[in-house]
Amino acid sequence: MKTLIVTGGKITHSFVASYMDRHQFNHVIAADSGIHFFAATGRLPDEVLGDFDSADQTEVRRFEQHPQIRFHQFRPEKDATDTELALELALERGSDEIHILGGSGTRLDHLLGTIHLLGLALEQGVPCYLVDEHNRLRLIREKTVLRRADQYGDFVSLIPLTTRAEGVTLTGFKYPLKDYQMDTFHSIGISNEIMAEEAVIELKSGILVLAETRD
Residue 75 pLDDT more than 90? Predict the structure, then answer.
């Protein structure tokens, strides 16, 4: 099952609508103020959750009372963000691919936290993408192939999430690597480019943030 999570960061309604139309999701979850997109466009999520401390309460009541929507409300004093709760729900529902929109914005603490949350899906072997108009991020820990025809933007960056990623080999890139140890606190993996029809990332251990980006 392919699941979309729309959460309360910075989003453009036209971008979310076109993304939904292109990807044809089987299940859609709105988290907290992510409901505003659905209220504004007339689209319906399958489930709504959050503490709704940053949401319009008129919109909250509308979705709470909608007979086709599963509604989950939490207290603001909780140990997980609304995005984490939505991701856990998506995994609980049996998702085998998850996309998160609205997970980035002006709050860098939320962005860093959400990048780490992608590990919840990684641990279960579920591809999970954090996407906005300029970036598509995911976590990888095994061989990954990128097709130039499908790339999201012009640049590919690799940032160790673990203390180090060992045995990193990059082929088909402008800046190749061979059996390289990538450590945190260094920026060697920033702003690479795909040069072949397919570019391959291999690593022997560790976890990398794979960021496909455009200006």
Answer: no
